[in-house]
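step=encode ok
step=design start
structure_in=
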């Protein structure tokens, strides 16, 4: 697999093709130790950057120690990830020329209060590395919290305050 790591405009380092790839070609494998989500959360509690890849329902993650850990997120990627027989492959979804940066959509779903700001520069960038579903979930939760906060304020607004008539 013809790949090289070098500087990237998306994030500090990126993974670039040194040979051509066609749709459905395997570009890289995401490898590393497998941890439970709880083990990973403990291990990386104070770390601002991780290279964790959630498997299946997200209860197990791969702690990336491979070339694929340098593949950056894009909202308009040239690859996707596929789980096959317990392995994770980064697979081309369109033609990739030598020199092109390899990217896939991270579709993040876990990150606490982190905004996971996207720097991909795609024309239709959604501004976040979170999946569309996670962004909808977060927006709904924020709206619900705001509605609850506003309801609490209105309920307390009729009470007299000390020093008022």
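sequence_out=
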């Amino acid at each position: 697999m013809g790949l090289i790591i070098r500087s990237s405009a998306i994030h500090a380092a990126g993974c670039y093709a040194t040979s051509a790839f066609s749709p459905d070609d395997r570009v890289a494998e995401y490898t590393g130790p497998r941890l439970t989500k709880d083990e990973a959360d403990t291990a990386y509690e104070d770390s601002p950057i991780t290279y964790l890849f959630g498997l299946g329902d997200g209860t197990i993650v791969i702690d990336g120690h491979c070339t694929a850990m340098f593949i950056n997120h894009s909202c308009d990627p040239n690859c996707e990830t596929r789980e096959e027989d317990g392995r994770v492959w980064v697979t081309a979804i369109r033609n990739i020329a030598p020199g092109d940066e390899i990217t896939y959509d991270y579709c993040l779903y876990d990150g606490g209060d982190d905004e996971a700001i996207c720097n991909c520069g795609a024309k239709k960038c959604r501004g976040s590395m979170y999946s569309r579903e996670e962004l909808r979930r977060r927006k709904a939760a924020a709206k619900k919290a705001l509605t609850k906060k506003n309801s609490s304020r209105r309920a307390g607004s009729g009470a007299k305050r000390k020093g008022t008539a």
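step=design ok
step=annotate ok -> The CA atoms of residues 118 and 128 lie 4 Å apart.
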